[in-house]
Specification:
239 residues, alpha+beta, eight-stranded antiparallel sheet, 6 helices, 8 strands, disordered N terminus
Length: 239
């Protein structure tokens, strides 16, 4: 995504900037929807299955995506603070035990001299993986001399992890993956840019068993809710 694109992503974050250095009261209504789960499946081909797990606290919103494609399974996590600006995303490939994260902020985070004197509409991006860390202005990835920086970005993860990331491509059209593509995964590999076209959609289905297989089992209340949402009318007994 270009810097104007980054401005769009950060637009919703900037109104809260004034509260970065001042402790802000909990926004009204934040406790109304403390958590939620949704599971969808697209038959394909290729078949894609995913769950969205949302959790809200007084300090942040957290969304986990549990994704399965024919090439493997991924756990994705996104966090946004209740007050202030910035966003954090992480992608984990459980079978390799490896992760990569990206933080994006309209201001230089502590310890990022690479983003000194940053100003809008630019943003500071910090990538962290098993092989290192890279901080840079987002605009630097779209310049004419961006090739060396992109090679460094790809180098923060292992070659095996980078190769496996390509298996996530069928899931990139999912709306909830919007934060993960252009300003994150596509910085590691341009092939992971969000493809044009409509968002990937699928019917909502029971997901507690799927989520438990990732290590995120439903609570007893969530299982009861799932049973109620997808209850079936018993087949009448033959006469």
């Amino acid at each position: 995504m270009t810097v104007p694109g980054a401005a769009f992503v950060l637009a919703a974050l900037l109104p809260a900037v004034a509260a970065v250095d001042v402790a802000a009261p909990t926004p009204a209504g934040r406790g109304l929807v403390p958590r939620g789960r949704w599971h969808h499946e697209s038959p394909g081909p290729p078949r894609v299955r995913w769950s969205v797990l949302f959790r809200r606290t007084e300090t942040e919103d957290e969304t986990r995506l549990l994704v399965e494609t024919p090439a493997g399974r991924w756990a994705l996590r996104s966090m946004q603070p209740a007050a202030g600006a910035g966003t954090f995303e992480e992608v984990t490939f459980p079978s390799l035990g490896e992760s990569v994260s990206r933080s994006l902020s309209p201001f230089p985070p502590p310890g990022t001299p690479e983003c000194a004197n940053l100003g809008p509409p630019d943003a500071c991006v910090v990538l962290k993986g098993s092989r290192g860390r890279l901080a840079a202005r987002l605009s630097a990835f779209s310049g004419t001399d961006a090739a060396p920086l992109k090679r460094r970005a790809a180098g923060v993860v292992s070659p095996a992890f980078l190769a496996r990331l390509k298996g996530l491509a069928p899931a990139l059209p999912i709306s909830d993956l919007a934060f993960y593509s252009e300003d994150f995964l596509a910085l590691l590999d341009p092939a992971l840019a969000r493809p044009p076209g409509p968002a990937l959609a699928g019917p909502r289905l029971p997901g507690c068993a799927f989520d438990a297989s990732f290590g995120y089992p439903c609570t007893a209340d969530e299982r009861r809710r799932e049973d109620w949402l997808f209850r079936r009318t018993p087949t009448p007994a033959p006469r």
